[in-house]
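yo

u said u wanted the structure for the complex thing, so here. seqs first:
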Amino acid sequence: MRADARDNRARIMAAADNVFGRSPGASTDDVAKLAGVGIATVFRHFPTKTDLLEAVLTLRLERIRDRALELAGSADPGTAFFEFFTQVVSESASKLAIAEALSAAGAAAGEEAREAGRGMREAFGGLLAAAQKAGAVRADAQFPEVYALLIGASRGATAAELDPETRDRMLALVFDGLKTLS
Amino acid sequence: MRADARDNRARIMAAADNVFGRSPGASTDDVAKLAGVGIATVFRHFPTKTDLLEAVLTLRLERIRDRALELAGSADPGTAFFEFFTQVVSESASKLAIAEALSAAGAAAGEEAREAGRGMREAFGGLLAAAQKAGAVRADAQFPEVYALLIGASRGATAAELDPETRDRMLALVFDGLKTLS
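structre next:
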């Protein structure tokens, strides 16, 4: 791909992330406008709206996974775990909006997005294990229920349209339940 | 309404609760079959699928609210609060399926369902206040974040398709975060 085509593609994806993250019912035209390119350019890179949504969702999941992998080397595994948990919940509203737009377009997440989702899940498991080893998270909590809590806190924050303060107080309750009992 | 019409209506609603609670994409015909009535009888009571879904969702929410009001008189407010929380989360998969079917039918919950939802929310607030007064739930937890946790645990359990054991372990983590720190 030529450099200007790569630039266009990146600009379109950033615009799509923004537009669909705020309103799942937005159109490809809205994306083209925000990206400052013609609609034909969008369709050249992403033949269907589903292709575009899938690419944006995959990018989101890959970024979350990369953040988890980055935090995995932290000298303070407890802080790393709770920071990652907080970040996933904070960003969940726009991520869920993109997933909803994909579902409304009649498509399930494709192989790329699912692969990125698996990578994210695995990296989260690594952060949990390290935080438990460091004594920051109780040792009796198993991955499936902690992961369900992450999903639940994300969906709860989104469904209840929590302001950031209430969301942080909800997370404080969740984190107290996860911390090692002293 | 004559007694046999009342019986039919109750039978149709029980069948709809069952059918749509398991698969949101089910048809009114599936409901008629399970209820053992003709499709014309279903449409006489509920002119549209939306009417039927709305009635079933309202009934669900009213039952949950009534359960909360019943528990409100308990001599052990801590147990009452945690029992109610557990029950709401356990039943959430089928309740969300009905809400999803309503949304797929292009309708938002109408006034009756919203009124029942408000009643449920209020009754939950009463259980929380009583449990806090009894010292079973920490006094610094406020209603908005505790309610968000209830919604979140419900959605997390449903989205992650948790088996009952994992769901109970997830709830144990949530409850430890809610209990009074000693």
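The mean pLDDT of chain B is 90. Chain B touches chain A through 30 residues (CB under 8 Å).
cya
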